[in-house]
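Need a sequence for this fold. Nothing fancy.
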């Protein structure tokens, strides 16, 4: 890794031979790393995948490398994108974002050409994927908009709430995602089951009528739109969800090919969702007594969803087949495959196609499941020192007394309040890939009014901070604003 960095960014002292004479060095070194990566992926990881990142490559012309990769056969032109394991998540985010922007421009141009060809007067709306929804019918209106505007999915997203003035510069889009995700994942909606022990959601079994499948497709589209438009979502899916989402990473042309199926799921996969059940199955495999007599199990699975227990057969006539010491491994394998694949196949299939209807691209196939999760959900790591260093000021200076007081107040907040502060100023309590230093946060001087609360413009990650007289007043007003931020003090 260090060699590639030294060769890519040659030192000034000319300690290495000219690059023109050693063109084979970097491809050869990268291919050797590819062998290490392949071996690492065969079994339990000896190296975490991030150990193979070369962050120096974040600073090369990534899009040129990406276009070279798409334009040539692998043997004709070396490209780092051929070996995505070496590119950091920051580099991949740059590629994905730029690729999305290019697709947005291309689709907008197609709409413009189509309008002109039909001798119609174009308007600004043809350049966007326009979502118009009523707050009182949020899910249904969103479903209808997505269903009727499939050809616009790859345009820049713009959201309007019916009957409300305001131009969407990003804030309304964030709010739409926030409210829609919250409503669809509510327990009363019945599409997902929340497991408190693992603090994650999983797909509800039995929700396979056309209406529900449309809504699972909507969730997939939402996740795709979030990645495509660089929006962070507050989703709590287990890691296996993202593995299923990339199984396969390219949508098959044959509709009969299964999608969203993880081969040979493990107890570790189940442990991410139902740790108590996973522990029970592990105990079953390790039990030294007579399984059939002591446990009385049959080839059935019983799950409690939304307070209603349901029983399903793991194999034909499963209710009459006892689990024994000899067949208990088969029972566990069938159990895992049923819970993680078969029971939710139709639901996840709709979800899979929804996601890929927006995100299908060559950039996507470079990502690992863990990296897709990072792009969708961001991270929970709050580094306020990093945010402070990157903050810009309008009307204030970084060393003004009120600014120093402001940061002292923010750093004194509880972890929960810090997340609410982040939600207040950005519209999301998650940190995007690249860290808080990439958030372009700005603090603007407000009026000298002690009765005013701080005001946030989430479209621009901007905080308008009134000129308070002292530390205590600043803390009182800021805490009041962030604890009551939804629909109050945010624009």
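Here you go.
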């Amino acid at each position: 890794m260090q060699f590639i960095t030294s060769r890519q960014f040659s030192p000034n002292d000319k300690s290495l031979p000219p690059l023109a004479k050693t063109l084979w060095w970097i491809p050869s070194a990268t291919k050797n790393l590819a062998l290490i990566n392949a071996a690492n992926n065969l079994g339990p990881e000896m190296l975490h995948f991030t150990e193979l990142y070369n962050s120096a490559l974040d600073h090369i012309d990534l899009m040129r490398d990406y276009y070279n990769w798409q334009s040539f056969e692998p043997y004709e032109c070396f490209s780092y994108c051929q070996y995505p394991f070496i590119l950091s998540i920051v580099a991949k985010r740059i590629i994905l974002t730029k690729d999305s922007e290019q697709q947005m421009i291309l689709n907008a141009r197609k709409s413009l050409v189509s309008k002109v060809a039909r001798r119609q007067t174009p308007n600004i709306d043809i350049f966007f994927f326009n979502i118009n929804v009523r707050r009182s019918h949020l899910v249904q209106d969103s479903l209808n908009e997505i269903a009727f505007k499939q050809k616009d999915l790859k345009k820049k997203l713009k959201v309007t709430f019916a009957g409300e003035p305001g131009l969407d510069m990003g804030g309304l889009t964030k709010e739409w995602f926030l409210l829609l995700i919250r409503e669809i994942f509510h327990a009363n909606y019945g599409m997902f089951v929340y497991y408190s022990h693992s603090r994650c959601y999983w797909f509800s079994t039995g929700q396979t009528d056309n209406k529900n499948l449309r809504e699972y497709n909507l969730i997939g589209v939402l996740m795709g739109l979030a990645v495509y438009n660089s929006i962070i979502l507050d989703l709590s899916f287990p890691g296996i969800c993202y593995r299923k989402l990339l199984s396969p990473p390219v949508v098959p042309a044959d509709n009969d090919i299964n999608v969203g199926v993880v081969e040979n799921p493990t107890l570790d996969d189940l442990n991410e969702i139902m740790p108590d059940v996973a522990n029970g199955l592990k105990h079953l495999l390790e039990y030294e007594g007579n399984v059939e007599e002591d446990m009385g199990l049959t080839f059935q699975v019983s799950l409690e969803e939304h307070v209603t227990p349901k029983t399903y057969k793991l194999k034909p006539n499963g209710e009459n087949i006892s689990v024994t010491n000899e067949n208990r491994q088969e029972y566990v394998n069938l159990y895992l495959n049923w819970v993680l694949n078969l029971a939710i196949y139709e639901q996840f299939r709709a979800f899979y196609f929804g996601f890929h209807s927006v995100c299908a691209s060559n950039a996507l196939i470079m990502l690992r499941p863990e990296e897709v999760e990072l792009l969708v959900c961001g991270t929970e790591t709050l580094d306020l020192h990093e945010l402070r260093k990157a903050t810009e000021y309008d009307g204030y200076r970084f060393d003004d007394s009120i600014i120093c007081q402001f940061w002292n107040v923010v750093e004194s907040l509880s972890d929960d309040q810090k997340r609410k502060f982040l939600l207040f100023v950005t519209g999301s309590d998650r940190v995007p890939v690249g860290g808080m230093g990439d958030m372009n946060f700005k603090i603007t001087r407000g009026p000298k009014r002690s009765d005013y609360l701080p005001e946030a413009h989430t479209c621009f990650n901007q905080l308008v901070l009134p000129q308070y007289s002292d530390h205590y007043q600043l803390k009182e007003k800021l805490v009041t604003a962030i604890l009551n931020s939804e629909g109050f003090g945010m624009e």
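For context: Confidence is low (pLDDT under 50) at residues 487-491.
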